[in-house]
Amino acid sequence: MNHYDEGEVVPDLRLRFGEDNHDGDKGDYMDLGERETESLPPSHRRTWRGFLWYWIKLALLFSCLGLLAGVCLKWVWPYFMEKEIIPIINWETTTFSHPVLALLVFITVALFPTLLFPSTPSMWVAGMTFGYAYGFLLIISGVTIGVSLPYFIGSLFHHKIQVWLEKYPKNASLIRLAGSGNWIHQLRAVTLIRISPFPYILYNYCAVATNVKYVPYVLGSLIGVIPEIIVAIYT
Description:
- Helix 2 packs across helix 3 and helix 3 runs antiparallel to helix 8 (about 215-235).
- With about 240 residues, the chain is mainly α.
- It has a two-stranded antiparallel sheet with strand order 1-2.
- The chain has helices at about 40-95, 100-110, 120-155, 160-165, 170-175, 185-195, 200-205, 215-235, and strands spanning about 1-5, 10, 15, 30.
- The protein is built from 8 helices and 4 strands, in the order E-E-E-E-H-H-H-H-H-H-H-H.
- It has 2 domains: about 45-95, no CATH class; about 95-235, no CATH class.
- The protein is about 70% helix and about 5% strand.
């Protein structure tokens, strides 16, 4: 037998099972031509909608962040540089002599990270005033002090820092890797953390809570900040 489906002739497929009997009954038939389509349960539909809505919100979030970053790079940062940073740098370079300026650069690079202040403007001054070679040596010596002071200060609050890290296990899992393994492993881990976007000043105080040794911590920090120093000097 045939039936019509949207203008087309579709044969009906039936499977017969059972044996013929003397009464002319040819057994039972099972229709194979039609199969009921099962729809997804409501829970699956809700899960799919939630998954789609999650990615839509994530895309909107990154779009807003990208737009905000573009506005800052296009207008806010140049305005801040022109009105605040450059006048201060010009004032420092014209007011102080080279020995005094070298001392100021060393002190700011060494102490600002301890006080949770950025030291990048001082690196700019070092590059502009003392050139690439002497500026690099001046900055790297200050960075050595700048990463050592928070390490020893953080050791005084070792327990409190560990309690604070336990509140954020996902964020703390990265820096805890630096405290495991041997000397070489710690050196590599600290170097990678310094190169990564992980907050520089925050890690200065949290490193001691990971039980990383001082020598691999300092060497890894110095190696990891070399790209930042080079960029700051050439800027």
